[in-house]
Amino acid sequence: MMKNAVFDRVEVMQGDITTLKLDAIVNAANRSLLGGGGVDGAIHRAAGPELLSECRKIGGCSTGMAKITKGYNLPVKYIIHTVGPVYRGTDEDRRLLSHCYLNSLKLAVKNHTMSIAFPAISCGAYGYPLKKACRIAIDTTYDFLKNNRTLKKVVFILFSADDYNVYKKYLKIFV
Ligand code: ADP
């Protein structure tokens, strides 16, 4: 295998996830899947009210799991809704946050998705420290991509320049 073949498929960006034209974006949702603040609110506003109608039919999602809907007015085929843990500083938080990334990636592949973007799940209202969450996001994605050839692009998109720099710095370890 070519050197860096996994991390040739990983990209870090700063910006708004609702502007990305990819096969799928991931939403940091809550268990009701009925919308909320932060990135969830931005995605629902941009996708339009049909998204909420589809989410109502799903009937919720457990922490660490993921559900898929159409993208509606967003320039993506799919939105993958995952529910991050509320940070308490336990090993269980790590496990659940890792599951968010893993289950989202699995669901993406199952739906023939070749490109996907993640926000910093749990790092807003749910209080997960960004540096810790960044390691879990990237380590979990790396392990997944090692054994998967169908996903061509995984984007981590951060709202703030500080958050973007944390991801950039950690990613350098791998290249
Ligand atoms: P959680 O409840 O999982 O903590 P939040 O939406 O509160 O989710 O925050 C998750 C992360 O998403 C935060 O780092 C926040 O800065 C970021 N964020 C908020 N809006 C957007 C957006 N439109 N695009 C990308 N990231 C966003």
CATH superfamily assignment? Leucine Aminopeptidase, subunit E, domain 1
**Strand ordering within the main sheet:** 1-6-5-2-4-3
| CATH class descriptor | Alpha Beta
| Distance separating the two termini | 14 Å
- Spatial extent as radius of gyration: 15 Å
CATH architecture: 3-Layer(aba) Sandwich
Number of helix segments?
A: 5
What attributes does this structure have?
single chain, 175 residues, alpha/beta, Leucine Aminopeptidase, subunit E, domain 1, six-stranded mixed β-sheet, 5 helices, 6 strands, 39% helix, binds adenosine-5'-diphosphate
SSE order and pairing:
Blueprint: E1 10-14, E2 24-29, H1 38-47, H2 49-58, E3 66-70, E4 78-83, H3 91-110, E5 115-118, H4 130-146, E6 153-158, H5 161-172
Parallel strand pairs: 1-6, 2-4, 2-5, 5-6
Antiparallel strand pairs: 3-4
Bound molecules: adenosine-5'-diphosphate.
Can you give a write-up of this model?
Helix 3 (91-110) crosses helix 4 and helix 4 (130-146) packs across helix 5 (161-172). The model has no long low-confidence stretch (mean pLDDT 96). The protein has helices at residues 38-47, 49-58, 91-110, 130-146, 161-172, and strands at residues 10-14, 24-29, 66-70, 78-83, 115-118, 153-158. It has a single domain, classed as Leucine Aminopeptidase, subunit E, domain 1, CATH 3.40.220. The chain is globular and about 40 Å long. Helix 4 (130-146) links the parallel strand 5 and strand 6. With 175 residues, the chain is of the alpha/beta class. The two termini are 14 Å apart. The structure holds adenosine-5'-diphosphate (ADP).
